[in-house]
Amino acid sequence: MMRPQLVAMAFVMVLAAVCDFGTGSLVEVPGVTQAPPPPPRNPNLRNNQTRSRMPNNFRSYTIPTSPPKCDYREMMTNLHDRVGILVTLDEDQRHRLEIIDKKLDELVDSSSARMESMKAQQLDFKQRLDSFEHIQRLSRNTLDELKGETDLVFGSRHIRELKHKLNNRKKMKDLSRTPRAVQDPESEPTRASNESYLSVSDRLDALATLLTSTALQVRSTQIEVNSLSKVIKRQNRLIQGKLGHKSPGAPPSIFYGPAGMDGPPNSQDLPNSCKYHFLSSQGILKLQLTPESESFYVTCDDDWTVILSRSSDDVNFERGWLDYRDGFGNLAGNFFIGLNKLHALTASALHELRIVMEDFSGNVAYAGYSVFAIGSEREIYPLSVLGKFQEDLTPSAGDSLSYHAGAKFSTLDQDNDNCLDCNCAAKHKGAGWFNNCATSNLFGHYIARNQGQALETGMWWDTFAGQNSLKSVRWMIRPVPDFLDDNRR
Questions:
Q1: Is 459:441 a contact under the CB 8 Å cutoff?
Q2: Which residues pair with 410 in a beta bridge?
Q3: Sign of CA dihedral 14, 15, 17, 18
Q4: CA 155, CA 145: separation in Å to the nearest integer?
Q5: Pairwise CA distance, residues 232 & 178, whole Å
Q6: Per-residue confidence of the chain (489 residues) as pLDDT tens digits?
Q7: Residue 466 φ/ψ, nearest 5 degrees
Q8: Which of 132, 265, 298, 439 has the fewest CB within 10 Å, making it most exposed?
Q9: Which residues face 453 on adjacent strands?
């Protein structure tokens, strides 16, 4: 920082020295010590010769030139201005370098934390893989034992396959057999008609026989499955007896048919969506997405799962990464479900998104998107899938979320936006999928009264009420109906 000032001071000293030497000086002309040789004598020029032989040993004063003007005050003012500009540029560059260093440090810390998380996940995955391989070996041994017992009871598999082939071949012959027509040969049309009628009748009888046989086979298969389940129970009791544990309870009953068609799932199993909202208590339902996953509570609004609800300032949404990852608030009031649970829900099936907003004037508007899903923590929970905006919802709040599609999630302590010189989460006093920065901010501060422009820190939706503060907002998701129908088929 002192280098430009030192250079300027040196430059001033050089100029001062130049100005001292440029004020004018005496020029000394050397005298003539010897007269030139005399010219030829001429009486008329004698006096002139005498006058010319006089010595010229005197100093002549040369007229000094006008000295250059050196205005030190103006020169110093100009130099001071230039030095100030250089110092300002130097400080600006240093500020930018400090910002870049801070961003790099944050990136290094974030990368280190993610690497540690990935290592822990990798270790957990290896442990689960080993457990799965152990279970697979035990299952293979149990199946081999069951196969041996089944062969003892019903015969070998090869013999059963031959029986089924022979029965199917016999039934096909019965279906393809041409009936014998007993009619008068003179009446050809009547004979052809009776032949067709008898053929259809016989074919229907054969088909009924086939259906009956199939039903019997299904029944025998069910009996076989029940016997196998008894064998499995017996084997489990033997294993538990060897291990010194109590025998497990009765296995759940087998339901043949699509889930949810004839009623709720088994009482021993938890539902996997708010489709079974009639089982909830005061709108709160416990879900389990897969048999291996952990269960958790959600708030249901009919068949919609509420993931965000805000209607007062009871809960502060200006929080860090861990709170938004795990969720916070009260399911019966203001809350956020958490990024981990939201990712698990949207990864289990295709979901659509519905946002309900209300301003302080009592106006209610809706924003819907055909598909909605976010990524995992390893991917920094990006808004990876956001479908088409549903314009048929009325009254419509407009589309203020598509701008954020593809953005990663940011909080006060995790800056993942695309803004180099700012932190959008700190700027908007909340969190969200910021993209340098936002067209909506539903995770911002809740303003208890309508104070007009909420500006950047409030809870607002740009295409609904601009940046005016909102009174309430709810985010809800549910599985796409077409997706459920395809799975059912």
A1: yes
A2: 432
A3: positive
A4: 14
A5: 49
A6: 455 556 666 666 666 665 555 444 444 444 444 445 555 555 554 454 444 455 554 444 455 555 555 577 788 888 888 888 888 888 888 888 999 988 998 888 888 888 888 888 888 888 888 888 888 888 887 887 777 777 777 777 778 777 777 877 777 776 665 554 444 444 444 444 444 445 666 667 677 677 766 766 676 676 777 777 777 877 777 776 666 544 444 444 333 333 343 444 444 478 888 988 888 788 899 999 888 888 999 999 988 999 999 999 899 999 999 999 999 999 999 999 999 999 999 998 899 999 999 988 889 999 999 999 999 999 999 999 999 999 999 999 999 999 999 999 999 999 888 888 888 998 888 899 998 888 999 999 898 775 555 567 888 898 987 878 899 999 999 998 754 444 444
A7: 65, -130
A8: 132
A9: 468
Question: Residue 249 phi/psi, 5° resolution?
Answer: -75, -175
Q: What is the largest CA-CA distance in the chain?
A: 188
Is residue 285 within 8 A of residue 297, CB to CB? The reply is: yes
Closest by CA to 260, choosing from 249, 272, 251, 268, is 272
Could you give all domains of the chain from N- to C-terminal order, each with its CATH number?
3-91 (no CATH), 155-178+188-243 (no CATH), 274-488 (3.90.215.10)
Contact criterion met (CB below 8 Å) for 353 and 464: no
Whether residue 151 contacts residue 160, with contact meaning beta carbons closer than 8 Å, is answered with no
Q: What is the secondary structure of 114-136 as a DSSP string? A: HHHHHHHHHHHHHHHHHHHHHHH
Quickly tell me which residue has 């050089």 as its tokens. Answer: 14
Q: Which residue has the tokens 């300032």?
A: 313
Check residue 185 and report its DSSP letter. T
Using a CB cutoff of 8 Å and minimum separation of 24, what contacts does 279-283 make?
282/332, 283/332
Long-range CB pairs of 93-99 (<8 Å, 24+ gap) are 99/420, 99/421
